[in-house]
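Minutes, project huddle
Topic: does the predicted pose make sense with fe (iii) ion bound?
PN asked that the exact inputs be recorded in the minutes so nobody has to dig through chat later. Recorded below.
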Amino acid sequence: MAMTGVLRPGHAQVRVLNLEESVRFYRDVLGLVETGRDAQGRVYFKCWDERDHHSYVIREADEAGIDFFGFKVLDKATLEQLDADLQAYGLTTTRIPAGDLLETGERVRFELPSGHLIELYAEKTAVGNGAGLVNPAPWTQAREHGIGPVRLDHTLLYGPNVAEVQKIFTEVLGFYLVERVLTPDGQGNAAIWLSCSHKVHDIAFAEYPEPGKLHHCSFLMESWEQVLRAGDIMSMNLVNVDIGPTRHGVTRGCTIYAWDPSGNRFETFMGGYQPYPDYEPITWTFDNFGQGLDYPQRKLHETFLTVVT
Ligand code: FE
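Predicted holo structure (tokens), as shared on screen:
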């Protein structure tokens, strides 16, 4: 099999200020499927076309932001190998027992030099997308509720030491650099987009003085028309919209950035190209950051640089 190691983004756990208001938002406006609640009060969601039990978990807290972001790996042997590799690289890993997250196996957790907690896991119950595995319909009623994204696609995280983060993802976890924005002096990277797959990014980081910050979690839509429809639904529900609908120069993704009721930014996204690991990274100079962010408007929106949770 060509695809081994780290397979894909698997879950994000995000803090919200009011649980039930957030459940209504994520279930009825974003249109995720609620799949469970646990003894800690966490609420679990999946996108309609995802097959595993959940991809987005919310927890009530005094401050918004992200607790951790998890990647699914191929199997348990891969999990053991990557844990050993992370430790050999000099990182401290901890084990979270199976069942801590509902329907999820043991997780290997480590902290990045950017202050973010990243997890790897090999097992999560496959609940399916509701269409079955024999002669399936192309979609289910769940797609028709709210914005209805297909899957959790990627995250963009803000924190310090992005150069060290890049080394961990590329040298230990098997990711490759797809695109980057240079710092104003051209000597380093202000932001990086990394892939573990054929997707234009699975995770991205931007250099920022405060550690552990969330810029956005991104949800994949099937078409540009679906992104525009997402914008309609945002306006019907008076959602706070940040940028778009527009297209990023970086990744060529078509996008809307908006905020959940707690101020956590999320993205409805489609498109981009499909890179391979042998591709040379694409570089954006800092003076073209505006085109990188919003290609038609060529505007480096202030909120992109300053508003994080
Ligand atoms: Fe994004």
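Observations noted during the meeting:
- The first strand starts at residue 6 and ends at 16.
- The two ends are 38 Å apart (CA to CA).
No decisions taken; revisit at the next huddle.
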